[in-house]
Amino acid sequence: MTRLANKVALVTGAASGIGFATAQRFAEEQAVVVLADRNGPLLAEALARIQEISPESDSACFDVTSEQAWKDLATTLMNRFGKLDVLINNAGFGRFQSIANLSYDDWKATVAVNLDSVFLGTKYMMPLLARSGSGSIVNMSSMRGIVAGPNASAYCAAKGGVRMLTKVTALECAEAGNGVRCNSVHPGHVETPLTAAAYAKPELAKEFLAHTPLARFGKARDIANAFLFLASEESSYMTGSELVVDGGVTCQ
Ligand code: NAD
Questions:
Q1: Does 17 sit in the ligand 1 pocket, CB within 6 Å?
Q2: Up-side HSE of residue 4: CA atoms within 13 Å toward CB?
Q3: CA-to-CA distance for 23 and 42, rounded, in angstroms?
Q4: Measuring from atom 32 of ligand 1, which residue has the nearest CA?
Q5: pLDDT, tens only, 194-220
Q6: Where's the Ketoreductase domain (predicted)?
Q7: What angle do CA 111, 116, 118 make, to 5 degrees?
Q8: Is 124 a catalytic residue?
Q9: Do residues 199 and 205 touch, judged by C-beta distance below 8 A?
């Protein structure tokens, strides 16, 4: 359980779901985790649980779409740790409507949280990641960043954008020779607070599982394990790659 020993990892959207499971998994592997989220009360609860495993872990309450907040966090982390080893750009949500019914405000909010935040996190954390010597950025995309679904225009566009932004980041880091790798993770249907209401509807759950070859929903820890692999030295020859964790949905 030392796969992230001596590493500092920042996880966004860490108060809930996949982000929390990732923070937990990283703490189990001896990382110091900085949990970031905009939901203050939930974040405080999450941090208390993580500190039981990793007492030096900390939290940062901010909105990942705020450029100033990212700048401020970079200063805070530089003063506190002098480096960052792992950045997990995970925070996100979807607004699902047909193009005809999706408001432009909902389009912009979806793209801002899922895609703009990844650009901002990458931009402002890069100097800290370069100081690591073996930095790793892992971006949360989705199977919806690879295959489309109806009523998901903004979400698919944003997650597809994350997929390509990941590859550009990988190339720029390789060219700079700064030791930073960048990869993306593409989950399928995962049980979290975000999806709980939808999966509680028997008809919808049945439909989703019918096109999932492994015939079960993913667990947050299934995705956390993928983040762990890409965050650790075990994936040191991987950059610009996309790791699909979808129970086989996109094989078909
Ligand atoms: P979740 O709702 O359980 O957790 C998301 C967390 O992100 C919440 O704690 C929320 O407060 C935080 N967050 C949202 N907007 C934020 C903002 N602007 N600033 C800071 N924090 C913010 O959701 P989840 O299912 O764990 O999803 C996490 C990520 O995984 C998302 O990017 C989502 O698109 C992606 N994803 C989820 C699934 C799935 O089936 N659950 C599948 C593919 C991809």
A1: yes
A2: 30
A3: 14
A4: 92
A5: 999 999 999 999 999 999 999 999 999
A6: 7-190
A7: 120
A8: no
A9: yes
Ligand 1 atom nearest 189 alpha carbon = 40
Per-residue model confidence as pLDDT tens digits over 50-106 = 999 999 999 999 999 999 999 999 999 999 999 999 999 999 999 999 999 999 999
Question: Residues 6 or more apart from 118 whose CB is under 8 A from it?
Answer: 89, 139, 162, 165
| Amino acid 67: pLDDT | 99
pTM over 0.90: yes
66 within ligand 1 shell (Cβ under 6 A): no
Cα of 192 vs centre of ligand 1, distance in Å, is 9
How would residue 1 be classed by pLDDT, with cut points 50, 70 and 90? Answer: confident
CATH topology of domain 8-190+220-239: Rossmann fold (3.40.50)
